[in-house]
Design a protein that fits this description.
- The protein is an alpha+beta fold and 157 residues long.
- It contains three helices and seven strands, in the order βααββββββα.
- A hairpin with a 6-residue loop joins β5 and β6.
- α1 packs across α3.
- It starts with 11 loop residues before the first strand and ends with a helix.
- The relative contact order is 0.23.
């Protein structure tokens, strides 16, 4: 009989991607200009970010959103890798349905413009299969809506 290792988590990942008819530089800029997000995303009510120790590649972002998870103010620690057009994030506060979340945003060139790939890896607060599947579905749908709005914004620029 096997033993569970203390501190191991049953994480679930959700991957969304979208092709945007714009250069990778413009798409990446839309992903990092978070102060503009309340004008772009109907679910984003307020957002601000502050550099950690003056390093603009490492920021703490605080965002108030209203979506399927309710109205929540969430904080995340973001690392910007401008050369790779890649963002890593770890949620410092999460909606109550989650025990934790982290992930990536990556922009890559593709035929027709750029591909934006967003991966959310999360641990549900309730460790049941039903809770995990419901969160997985909601994360996918919410992210799909965000990417649809980001695509429209980027293609207008």
């Amino acid at each position: 009989m096997g033993r569970a290792t203390p501190g191991t988590a049953m994480e679930t990942s959700v991957k969304n991607e979208i092709v945007i008819k714009q250069s990778p530089d413009i798409v990446y800029r839309c992903c990092t200009q978070v102060e503009s997000w309340p004008q772009v995303f109907p679910t984003c009510l307020e957002v601000k970010q502050n550099a950690v120790n003056g390093n603009t590649r490492e920021v703490i972002m605080e965002m108030t959103v209203s979506n399927a998870f309710g109205t929540n103010t969430i904080r995340s620690h973001r690392h910007y890798e401008h050369e790779r057009q890649h963002i890593q994030f770890k949620m410092l506060t999460v909606p109550p349905q989650f025990a934790g979340m982290h992930g990536t945003w990556s922009v890559e060139p593709c035929e027709g413009g750029s591909r934006l790939v967003v991966i959310h890896t999360f641990e549900p607060a309730q460790p049941t299969a039903q809770a995990r599947e419901e969160l997985k579905r909601n994360v996918y749908v919410n992210t799909d809506q965000v990417l649809t709005h980001l695509k429209a914004w980027a293609e207008r620029n």
